[in-house]
Amino acid sequence: MKKDALAPLTLGISTCLLGEEVRWDGGHKLDRFLTDTLGRFVRYCPVCPEVECGFGVPREPLRLEGDPHAPRLVTVRTGQDHTGRMLRWARRRVRELEAEDLCGFIVKSTSPSCGMERIEIYDAGGVAVPRGVGIFARGFMEHFPLIPVEDDRRLHDPVLRDNFIERVFVMQRWRNAVRGRRSRGALVSFHTGHKLVTLSHSPRHYRIMGRLVAQDQAMPITALYDEYQRLLVEALRRTATPAKHGNVLQHIMGYFKKQLSPAAKAELLEIIASYRQGHVPLIVPVTLINHYVRLYDQPYLAGQYYLHFHPLELQLRNHA
Ligand code: SF4
Structure pTM? Predict the structure, then answer.
């Protein structure tokens, strides 16, 4: 398959995850996977809402209070309400971030400013429920609804990590496709390379997107690209589970039904079953399939990003 020659993609990130001492107590939350592994393949654009908003280090810790849909950001000990200040800053900052061409954002979990979900919100009686979203994270996700966002805690789950990394690299290729000359042919080419990726996330979207690029000659090109992007993002938000991967692998097997001997078919089926049962990682059947792709010269499969995930050094699919 054609090698991508793309510049490193840019991810926004909560600054403390890079080891910067910006937390309320002067500490950090260095995440070695993000700095030492993923950091070799991406450019980070750090954002610390509380420091950039002018709260200083060290500072009194903050928490969310009140209505989960419109919480207030309040200092824990002295009860000062900083909601308006943070909201004004966040509105300005997300507009500035438009220039960064972000393909994703990794936020710090549990933070009342950065957290993307299940942030504690305190009621008038001081009882906390984990139903909030950090003030900056909410502003970011509302401003950039198509950009993948994950938090450091969820990224410790190999399946969620694999999904997020896949989404940001697909996003980068999509941005590249959108920047080039737009045409139905270019869209078909993008779609063809991502068919099995899409299928692994959502068989329903795979069918809808296939019909969209193949049939809709009447739709203006801008509307066609917009609709395709909406469906692509929606599809990739659905987690690619071992069951869905198993179905994709069996679908791929169909391309070899004439070439593989009964013994080779049985071996591949056994490996796919072992993967489904969690005994071997996804890279095992994918490696065997890639061997057959080369051996039997299957150009369609050779062009599938699903089988040639970038970048290999991230060892995606070694765990998922
Ligand atoms: S969680 Fe967010 S606001 Fe808090 S220190 Fe980290 S980057 Fe700053």
Answer: 0.91
